[in-house]
Amino acid sequence: YSHSRYIASFLCGAPIESPQVLVLVMVDEPNDGGTGFGGDVAAPAASRILKKALVHLRIPSTAVRTISERE
To answer: Per-residue confidence of the chain (71 residues) as pLDDT tens digits?
Structure first.
């Protein structure tokens, strides 16, 4: 255990109503020069991976909505 080293992570999935794809990105000891939070460090990569997976699996974009669109 270390108080000065950490892992930034981000988990996402889609479609919201019936997830068919989950993506977990973990960055060991991020050196982003900023906060080091998973939303800042790992989320951009997770988003790109998820989008490519949805295209590859031919999941229509109409089936994918953000949480804010759901409310």
So the answer is: 778 888 999 999 988 888 899 999 999 988 866 677 888 899 999 999 999 999 999 988 665 555 555 54
pTM over 0.70: yes
The three-state (H, E, C) secondary structure of 17-45, written as one string: CCCCEEEEEEEECCCCCCCCCHHHHCHHH
CA 3 to chain centre: 25
- Compute the distance between CA of residue 44 and CA of residue 22 in angstroms, rounded to an integer: 15
Q: Which two tokens stand for residue 64?
A: 């994918």
Token pair of 5, please?
């080293």
Instruction: Return the structure tokens found at 31.
Output: 């050196």
Query: Is 62 strand, coil or helix?
Result: helix
Closest CA to 65 of 18, 14, 11, 12: 14
Phi, psi for 70 (deg, rounded to 5): -75, -30
